[in-house]
Amino acid sequence: MTKFKELSSILKENQYTFYPVVPFDATRDKLLKLDFTESNAELTSEVLNDTQNFTSHINSRLQRFNAKFGIGGYAEYRSVYSRSKLFDARNSPQGLGETPEPRRLHLGTDIWGRPHTPVRAPLDGIVHSFASNNTYGDYGAVIILSHQLEGMTFFTLYGHLSLNSIKNLQEGDTVRKGDIFGEFGIPIENGHWPPHLHFQIVIDLEGWKGDYPGVVKFSEKDAYLANCPDPDLILQLNQYLPEES
User: Fold this and answer.
1) CATH number at residue 226
2) Sign of CA pseudo-dihedral 184, 131, 176, 197
3) 187 in a domain, yes or no?
4) Which band of pLDDT confidence, cut at 50, 70 and 90, is reported for residue 115?
């Protein structure tokens, strides 16, 4: 069995034990599926290229549908990354006659909501690494936790956190299931995005510390998705999305 299949199976078997990563009560709260592909005509350059306008757009959508969080994005091919040169193809090696390929495929699930929303550990873990990746469009403050479950090691990545989330943090710190260890950051500290959490499962960090690609080239899709299972295996939020948003 591949590590992807093994971890996916283990996570499914243990879903009932995971603590909610964000404060969502299915008996009273609503979720809204958000689309960041080119098919979303509302995502004009005026919206995407101005963080304040982008934030207002997200907030208005949540308010319109009375949703506590907007959610989505795993394996989504997104036009939204055109807002930052971080995702363009300027440094991508290409053969003669080939068109440079930008990074557009999203590997995590995004949860959009209020700034300073608390983030809790879904299961016991250890702080593997953390960093402030403050390039425009990057993760901002990020924390990576290491976990062991039924003898298998894997990682969870939390991006776009507040700088306060990594204050006084140390590699090797223990985080218990249910502990609040982070919070949604504001744009000035989260990579200049509307407040949200990027949550990603990673099997092999491949030597990365305080960072790991959350957006890759479409041509790299198979390899990266095999290393980053569906975050909803832990989040378990998709079941609460309305059929039509």
Assistant:
1) 2.70.70.10
2) positive
3) yes
4) very high
Quote the percentage of the chain above a pLDDT of 90. Answer: 72
Q: Which residues form the domain of 133?
A: 3-92+101-240
Identify whether 245 is part of a domain: no
Tell me: pLDDT of 91 over 60. no
Whether the per-residue pLDDT at 33 is higher than 50: the answer is yes
Structure tokens at 164: 């306060």
CA distance 110 to 58: 12
Q: Is 63 helix (H, G, I), strand (E, B) or coil?
A: helix
Domain count of the fold of the chain: 1
What average pLDDT does the structure give for the chain? 90
Q: Is residue 109 part of a domain?
A: yes
What tokens appear for 1 in the block? 């069995």
Name the 3-class secondary structure at 225. Answer: helix
Give the pair of three-digit tokens for residue 51: 């963080």
End-to-end Cα distance, the chain = 37
